[in-house]
């Protein structure tokens, strides 16, 4: 019989993987969708942003709701809603109905917060980075393996199924049905927490005052900003790279363009557990990887990976300017590596810093972080840029202030009080204390 903590980790991972498959399922089919609705490249950038627009607010809301009601309930409700509107988008005959239904279906992106909270209710602090990395890494692969790699092959250009003759309509319909089924299964087989004491501590900490308090601590603020430049970038590139390889290099084959884009998504997803594992490792062994932040081992690893993301984006622009699509694909892979390691490091810190508010803080960090997925595609597709390659360098420059903020908060004298000090919002008691509620 499978151990309950692994059963719930598997459930959370399946939910998140399917959620990301649905969230990015429009990306491989942008050419066909653009043809049917008459969209330009710039308008495709807007569509890419629209598919993200509901997620930040949704994540901010679902975090405390998951702390309050438990992951099985919020996961079930979310998956059913996402599935229903994915099915509706499959039948849409106007651009307006299509866009609205896809915006609501994009709430699949909030499954990340539900899963982070669920996993944190079952694993010890010293294993959180690894467990959350497995969850988020395999789940994130839904964008690459699911949306970019699998869907274009199952629903290719010559698709002719029993219900639809249009491939993207069939993809949206069947993934929506799977979401509804999984949502019902989650409510039947999911368990909210390891112990009733843990469930009670998390539930009692969920309040509006607590959301405002934790969301304004320096720890939550800096991790949110770091997540803008990592996960926000990942979301943006997942929705954009298929169009980039097609328009910037003239790669018209949908399967080949999607496969190139999938190399980024797979790296950004499957390698994420390494970022969490290394964060756990350096914390346990007290190993310095960047002595500037003496004694703050998780922070050292996180900052190093954030710098790597900025450098890899500059390399992405340089690779694109060579005109060689294969060089650009390799560079995109390394951007994905940087995102994966950084995100794993960030979400090793979140539940470790805020053990009884992991859902709330995950909602804050995940919600704010997703904003990058709305803004960055507009930069990538900006009509004032000389070409589609320069946008990556422009985005890299916008990340420098975030690096500066991280370098300030990660200083030992500030980092040690980052869960208590923050902006002027009061709280009842410190929230970074160790959890006494019986994790094994």
From TrEMBL:
One of its GO terms (cellular component) is membrane. The keyword Membrane applies. It is found in: Membrane. One of its GO terms (biological process) is nitrate assimilation. Its main location: membrane. One of its GO terms (molecular function) is nitrate transmembrane transporter activity. SUPFAM superfamilies: MFS general substrate transporter (SSF103473). It is a multi-pass membrane protein. The chain crosses the membrane at residues 9-29, 41-62, 69-91, 97-116, 128-151, 171-190, 211-229, 249-271, 301-319, 325-348, 360-384, 390-410. It comes from the Archaea. Pfam families: MFS_1. Residues 5-415 form the Major facilitator superfamily (MFS) profile domain. PROSITE patterns: MFS. InterPro entries: MFS (IPR011701), MFS_dom (IPR020846), MFS_trans_sf (IPR036259), NO3_transporter (IPR044772). Belongs to the major facilitator superfamily. Nitrate/nitrite porter (TC 2.A.1.8) family. This is Major facilitator superfamily protein. It comes from Natrialba aegyptia DSM 13077.
């Amino acid at each position: 019989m499978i151990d309950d903590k692994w059963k719930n980790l598997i459930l959370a991972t399946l939910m998140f993987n399917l959620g990301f498959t649905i969230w990015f399922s429009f990306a491989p089919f942008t050419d066909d969708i653009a043809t049917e609705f008459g969209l330009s490249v710039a308008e495709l950038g807007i569509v890419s942003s629209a598919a993200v627009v509901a997620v930040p607010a949704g994540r901010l809301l679902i975090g405390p709701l998951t702390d309050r009601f438990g992951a099985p309930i919020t996961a079930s409700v979310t998956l059913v809603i996402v599935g229903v509107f994915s099915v509706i988008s499959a039948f849409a005959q106007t651009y307006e109905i299509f866009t609205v239904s896809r915006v609501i279906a994009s709430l699949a992106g909030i499954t990340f917060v539900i899963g982070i909270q669920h996993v944190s209710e079952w694993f010890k602090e010293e294993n959180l980075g690894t467990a959350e990395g497995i969850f988020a890494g395999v789940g994130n692969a839904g964008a690459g393996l699911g949306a970019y790699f699998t869907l274009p092959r199952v629903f290719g250009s010559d698709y002719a199924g029993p219900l639809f003759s249009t491939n993207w309509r069939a993809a949206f319909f069947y993934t929506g049905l799977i979401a509804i089924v999984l949502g019902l299964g989650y409510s039947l087989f999911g368990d909210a927490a390891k112990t009733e004491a843990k469930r009670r501590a998390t539930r009692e900490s969920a309040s509006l005052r607590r959301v405002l308090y934790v969301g304004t601590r320096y720890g939550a603020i800096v991790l949110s900003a770091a997540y803008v430049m990592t996960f926000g970038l990942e979301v943006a590139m997942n929705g954009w790279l298929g169009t980039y390889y097609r328009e910037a290099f003239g790669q018209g084959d949908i399967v080949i363009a999607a496969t190139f884009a999938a190399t980024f998504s797979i790296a950004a997803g499957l390698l994420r557990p390494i970022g969490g594992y290394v964060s756990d490792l350096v914390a346990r062994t007290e190993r310095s990887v960047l002595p500037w932040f003496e004694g703050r081992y998780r922070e050292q690893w996180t900052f190093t990976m954030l710098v790597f993301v900025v450098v890899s984006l500059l390399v992405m622009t340089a690779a694109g300017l060579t005109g060689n699509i294969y060089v650009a694909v390799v560079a995109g892979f390394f951007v994905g590596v940087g995102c994966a390691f950084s995100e794993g490091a960030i979400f090793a810190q979140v539940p470790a810093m805020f053990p009884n508010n992991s859902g709330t803080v995950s909602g804050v960090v995940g919600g704010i972080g997703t904003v990058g997925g709305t803004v960055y595609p507009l930069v990538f597709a900006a009509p004032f840029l000389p070409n589609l390659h320069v946008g990556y360098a422009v985005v890299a420059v916008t990340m420098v202030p975030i690096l500066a903020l991280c370098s300030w908060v990660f200083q030992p004298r500030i980092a040690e009080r980052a869960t208590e000090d923050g902006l002027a919002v009061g709280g009842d008691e410190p929230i970074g204390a160790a959890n006494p509620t019986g994790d094994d």
